[in-house]
Amino acid sequence: MTLKSSLGKNLLILSAVSFLNDTSSELMGALLPLFITELGGGALSVGLLGGLREAVSNFLKILSGYLSDRFNRKKPFVIAGYGVSALFKLLIPFSNSPSQVVIFSSLERLGKGIRTAPRDAILSLSGKVERNFSIHRAFDTFGALAGSLFALFLISKVPVREALIFGALLSLLSLPLLLLIEEPKVKLKKKLKVKVESPYFKRFLLASTLFSLSYISFMFFILKGKEITGSSSSALLLYAFYNLIYALSALLFKNFSNLTSPFKALSIGYALFSLYLIILSLSNSIALLVVAAVLFGISSGITDAGQRSAVGLLTGRAKRGTHYGLFHFLTGTSALVGNVIVGATWSSYQGVTLGILALLSLTSSALTFKLR
């Protein structure tokens, strides 16, 4: 049996695309906090960037998910989304102020908003849900690891602006592969409504929305790393280590969920993220930062693969794109609020804010533990 036949064509193509695109995105994302500080911005700018980048994309996800179900065509949305992202990535390095970085980065995420719900629907309709998202999120995060290592290498060789240009050009490599995606066959319903019928899915949406409010951007981890080590290179090295743990955790999610259940595994991921926030707030040494990176990576790997799997397990096939869009919309909106709050309070009330967010994450854990 070939790798293609055992795993599925769509899974392999979308995993390869995610690896290449995330190498580009994370290279640029790791450097953006440093680029912003070079241009005179601070923690609030980073908070706005971390929140707006995701919120802008998530506002579109519910629409693109619905339309991909309505027309029973998901592939065109995926291609268009990656294309839009590649276009705006090329503009980011030419920013001359923190506000321009925030604007161009947010516009780049429009592409993510267009592609994510239809792409997740394709993955959930192309084989075993937990396996597909476990493998896909692992490839995605190995790309993030490669991107953060590229960033670490480039920052010692070229100016940040030139490194960002290199990252933008990398995103173009993934586009030709998208033409090979096969459209999944789904029986089209005459009328589609954005309506949540399952009480289990409603409870999951509440839990994931609360968790997203607490899930602060990785950019704050980089900021914390630079504050403690005094070195951009050391902060990026810690970020690369986090991505390695993240990728391995996502890859092992399927095995972990088989030992317990997908929902209990997700609950544990939420609890571990709560612990990460507490350790991050207390971090005053490299040793504690390493512990924080491990907790951040494990919890991110579990929750990323787990939440996407949960949507597929709790919803019907005909409205899969719509439900993924709704999930991403709600979590993205709450992520914006959380990141702006953390950015505004980072200097004065960091410990208190992170403590409150840790409680929210624990609440999500309790809501999810006996979900089904």
From TrEMBL:
Enumerate the UniProt keywords alphabetically. Membrane, Transmembrane, Transmembrane helix
Q: Does the keyword Membrane apply?
A: yes
Q: Where is the Major facilitator superfamily (MFS) profile domain?
A: 160-372
What's the superkingdom here? Bacteria
TM ranges:
35-56, 77-95, 135-156, 163-181, 201-223, 235-253, 273-298, 326-346, 352-369
The cross-references to Gene3D superfamilies, in alphabetical order and at most eight, read:
MFS general substrate transporter like domains
Which PANTHER family does the entry link to?
C-METHYLTRANSFERASE, MAJOR FACILITATOR SUPERFAMILY TRANSPORTER
Question: What protein is this chain from?
Answer: MFS transporter
Origin organism of this chain? Thermovibrio guaymasensis
